[in-house]
Amino acid sequence: MISTLFGRTIGLKLSSIHWWAVGLVLAIGLAGLAMLYSAAGGHIRPWASAQGIRFVAGLVAMFIIAVIPIQFWLKYAYLFYGGAVAMLVIVEVMGHIGMGAQRWVSVGGVMLQPSELGKLAVILALSRYFHRMPPLKHPGLLHLIPPILMVAVPAALILKQPNLGTTTIVVAVSGWIAFAAGVRMRYFITVLVIVLAALPVAWELMHDYQRQRVMTFLNPEADPLGAGYNITQSMIAIGSGGVFGKGFMEGSQGQLDFLPEKQTDFIFTMTAEEFGFMGGMLVIASYSAMVIYAIAVSTRCRHLFGTLVAQGVAAMLCLHMTINIAMVMGLIPVVGIPLPLMSYGGSVMIAAMLGFGLLFNVWVHRDEKLRGA
Question: Residue 195 and residue 160: Cα distance in Å, rounded?
């Protein structure tokens, strides 16, 4: 009897999910697998096969997260946040070094990048904090000290790895959530003024390769075979794709290995080269539809916790998409931000799928009355 009722409850929750949104997640993920197959010259190894396994595992996790009572996520938000910070500390103490950065830890033989999961932990923690604020009151300056510290601790640990791109995402997502929670505009203006005033100091504190990326962005033609090689090849590939592209697995820059990191940061470049302007716009439209859906979910939710979680997922997806695509088009410096679901990488894939799980969870439990936590 209990198992039957439990099964019906799970079934009702799953049936209330917008399956067209799930279909959109599937479409983006499958498009990513196709591009990884193309990047490997028509082979499922080494990238498409591993990414496919992660995608399936992520789908299972997404549905499990979607049906767990949202009260659970509210109650244990700070615990998840503490776990994420602890993982970042472990990275600092005994993390694995790759490509000049110390960002990974081994969990059960699997390499994990805690900074990706840290973004979700910050979303949950900030959403819980602002949910517990007195109703119908704009947060004052004293109320903002705890959330600022919540963001500053993981951001500082991620920046030290060094990982400027993910640090930027964490801070920007946090600002998005704070704005959605009703933080007054004057505080954002104050922060912006402080940031602008601190730019000369930040420049001096940057690593050499980070300063080189900025200089390359300003003038990529100055060193086309050195520091400017990646972005120059990316812009050549995107331009050569034209309106409809060269065809699947027919892109010269990608297939002839002129394009570095084509399976990770520059996966959109491969897509634009092989499927042209129309293919690139379809990718952008798909991601944009999910961002708009997340914002729509937040507006339909009757509790602030769910509203802010949905806004946080929308911010994370929107910022990843915008920064990655602007980066490969030469509109901003290269900062190493992947394109979720399409770029190769286990931590990025799992973080994106967990984020979608939280989004669907908010929709399923949008009308629930949350108890104090």
Answer: 18
Is residue 181 within 8 Å of 304, Cβ to Cβ? yes
Q: What is the four-CA torsion angle of 285, 287, 288, 291, rounded to 10 degrees? A: 160
Q: How far apart are CA 249 and CA 251, in angstroms?
A: 6
Secondary structure letter of residue 111 according to DSSP: E
| Interatomic CA distance for residues 5 and 7, integer angstroms | 5
Question: Residue 329, class by beta-carbon neighbours within 10 Å (0-12 exposed, 13-18 middle, 19+ buried)?
Answer: middle
Q: Are 131 and 74 in contact (CB under 8 A)?
A: yes
189 to 147, 162, 175: CA distances (angstroms)? 17, 27, 12
pLDDT tens for 234-274 read 989 999 999 999 999 998 888 888 888 899 999 999 999 99
| Listed residue (124, 127, 19) closest to 63, CA to CA | 19
246-262 core/surface letters (b: 16 or more CB in 10 A; e: else): beebebebbbeebbebb
Q: Which residue has the higher pLDDT, 3 or 10?
A: 10
3-state helix, strand, coil in the chain (%, to 5): 70, 5, 25
How is residue 372 written in tokens?
């104090």
* Residue type for position 198: A
* List of residues 6+ apart from 284 with CB closer than 8 A: 321, 325
| 305 or 142, higher pLDDT | 305
Q: Give exposure, 161-184, as e/b (b: 16+ Cβ within 10 Å).
A: bbbbbbbbbbbbbbbbbbebbebe
Query: Can you give the pLDDT at residue 136?
Result: 46
Find out whether the peptide bond into 147 is cis, omega within 30 degrees of 0.
no
Is residue 190 within 8 A of residue 309, CB to CB? The reply is: no
